[in-house]
Design goal:
Two copies of one chain form a homodimer. Chain A has two domains: 122 residues, Aspartate Aminotransferase, domain 1, CATH 3.90.1150.10; 242 residues, Aspartate Aminotransferase, domain 2. In chain A, 42% of the residues lie in helices and 14% in strands. Chain A is of the alpha/beta class. In chain A, helix 2 runs antiparallel to helix 11, helix 12 packs antiparallel against helix 15 and helix 14 packs antiparallel against helix 15. Chain A contains 15 helices and 15 strands.
Chain lengths: 389, 389
């Protein structure tokens, strides 16, 4: 007992200052969501919570552009659980699954699908390039499911989901889409495109606290689920249990009600602002940042303009810039930005433009710090001028 | 689009009053945890968060009474995910698993183990009675794992985990324990008893917000995991990914940092109060409530005193009491208590005495309301007198 007490780490600091979070997630929490977090506690089976859940479901239909009355819900976990729930419920031993893998989240999809028994085939693309829909058509074969990441956080690439969906729909395969860095900020049209399962993470484009994965599930997906030969191993996210709680108010497991409170406010704020307005805001911010940084030698990492993911701005660093040293200096000033991953480490920065991060205020803080650290007079002025345009 | 807007439910009420939550979970949030929820946002890979995580891990070792340096962590989901992660990582196709099932959570364990391929056998007990350790010994056979719910929330029964553990340890099988209604409030000695996997839910005995499942995993369990023939389907809670994030600070998935902030405070508050002091507090509260209600015809539902779970007080209702009507009237006054489940519906109440619910203040509110609703003068006076003892 004494031994344990001695080995306990010193108490962590809990009164640290406000932080400027410009990473590809989590994002700064929306003020309305932050306030809702501390609403009086209720149980997961209370009528007030069910009423709130129904409002969330309706708002999610709008965000995802679903068919009228389509099933939507929050999974009680982060975005990766949203990814896993799709494969767990819709894939069975021996199923053929084609996965578009041009970054680390596409590869994560492949690993999960394989764990649930799929024969996985990959459509790839060179790093920093989008998946070519023609490649999907060529490799489709007898795939029962195709899965694609809409916005690859790891490289800042936007995959052409509408074009891929058109090909998949003709084949009868299900289409699973990872909308983690897009839904709520970029247009998403589940019904019009023909998507069967889509998920995101609360802490990305909606600036709600992490811990929830909003999903939408098509009737076709439910039909596939109903035809399973075996129940899914994943009891926690079993579509039947999920439907029971969200449609029939039957107990499945406790849900994180405080996160529901916050999520509902963040989603409402997004819809009140307007999804087209949010998409325009991201583009305006991305253009202003790029304009301001270009004279210092920064350049877009993703070559083709249509392949660039607006919500994660991937910029190639100028020759000679010491990535680690600059980010460390920024961190000292309570500013977080993110570098590359794997092969792009040290070569790029990934600037988050999701939700509340896509605002002039936090980027003013970054520009001002960079002007000082990089000894680059005029940076703030250029940024302000670009915002005016 | 218009159609969707018309069908959207009316905005839910968000300014409801403070609520008295006396259910078997979630519990009223600890004030320190509530305050921590709105701490400035950080990323899941920030050093401040890793430092906080290490403090949480050390405190969890103390709460669970683990071996020095044993692995502890928070799963990013509710208690049922804690249950599932144990079977997902430690069971493989064809394994023999013996499950003590004397309530709905024991039966949930059996369903999960089967989904992960186990040959499940059950040890049962009559409703409202504890598992007999002799029955476990008789049925142990070649089981590779035994699983038991420490406190059955559904019936208010405490199972004799130390006695069961002694039998299991001799056999070489792994022992999984559901400590959802016990850990943090009742003594738990993972190392001394010989438990290999234990979990709870943040919103139970610790009065933190729901959405986290604190777990502890023994070296024996990790050895079993390392010897798997196939990776677990459950990528999200894969022990290797978990160990990577919690020990080596490598990215696995985003964690709900706001919930970590709150959880750390709630756990610290529990350890500062002292686990023996908390166990005494629950017993004092349970005795006072029982003393106050007995003259009205309430009586303990669980026959044998040693089988009674102190944190969920199951009381048989007096003849003629209209369960639904009384609870509805309480709910109008913003007080939630819970009735029976399945065969005990309408026959019992289950009063939550976990964490912040086990305080005189919220039960004063209940007693005062019951004195009025049941027209039972003297109830509050009896309760106060019993608290004095």
């Amino acid at each position: 007992m004494k031994l344990l007490e001695i080995s306990r780490p010193s108490r962590p600091q809990t009164d640290y200052p406000e932080h400027t979070l410009l990473t590809p997630g989590p994002t700064p929490i929306h003020p309305r969501a932050m306030k809702a977090l501390t609403r009086p506690m209720l149980g997961h089976m209370d009528e007030e919570v069910f009423k709130l859940n129904r409002a969330i479901q309706a708002d999610l239909r709008e965000m995802y552009g679903t068919a009228p009355g389509a099933f939507t819900a929050l999974l009680a976990g982060t975005g990766s659980l949203g990814m896993e729930a799709g494969f767990a419920n819709l894939v069975e031993q021996g199923d053929e699954v084609l996965i578009c893998a041009n970054g680390s989240f596409g590869r994560r999809m492949a690993e999960m699908a394989a764990r649930y028994g799929a024969n996985v085939r990959l459509v790839t693309a060179p790093l920093g390039e989008a998946i070519n829909p023609g490649d999907v058509a060529d490799q489709l074969g007898n795939a029962q499911m195709v899965a694609v990441v809409h916005g690859e956080t790891s490289t800042g690439v936007l995959n052409p989901v509408p074009e891929i969906a058109e090909i998949v729909r003709r084949s009868g395969a299900l289409l699973t889409v990872d909308a983690v860095t897009t839904a709520g900020m970029e247009p998403f049209e589940m019904q019009a495109w023909g998507v069967d399962y889509v998920y995101t993470g609360a802490q990305k484009c909606l600036s709600a606290p992490p811990g929830l994965a909003p999903v939408a599930i098509s009737e076709r997906a439910f039909a596939r689920f109903a035809a399973r030969r075996q129940p899914t191993p994943l009891w926690y996210c079993d579509f039947e249990g999920l439907r029971g709680y969200w449609l029939e108010q039957t107990y499945h497991h406790t849900v994180p009600v405080n996160l529901h409170f916050a999520f509902a406010e963040a989603l409402r704020a997004a819809l009140e602002e307007g999804l087209p307005e949010r998409a325009a805001r991201v583009r305006m911010m991305g253009a202003a940042i790029t304009t301001a940084l270009t004279p210092l030698g920064f350049s877009p990492y993703v070559r083709r303009e249509q392949d660039r993911l607006p919500t994660v701005l991937a910029l190639r660093l100028p020759e000679g810039l010491d990535d680690a040293a600059v980010r460390k200096e920024l961190r000292k000033r309570e500013i977080s930005i993110t570098g590359g991953l794997g092969p792009t480490a040290g070569l790029i920065w990934r600037l988050g433009l999701m939700g509340e991060a896509a605002r002039p205020a936090p980027y003013r803080i970054l520009m001002s710090a960079l002007e000082d650290i990089l000894n680059a007079p005029g940076l703030v002025k250029r940024f302000e001028a670009a915002l005016e345009r």
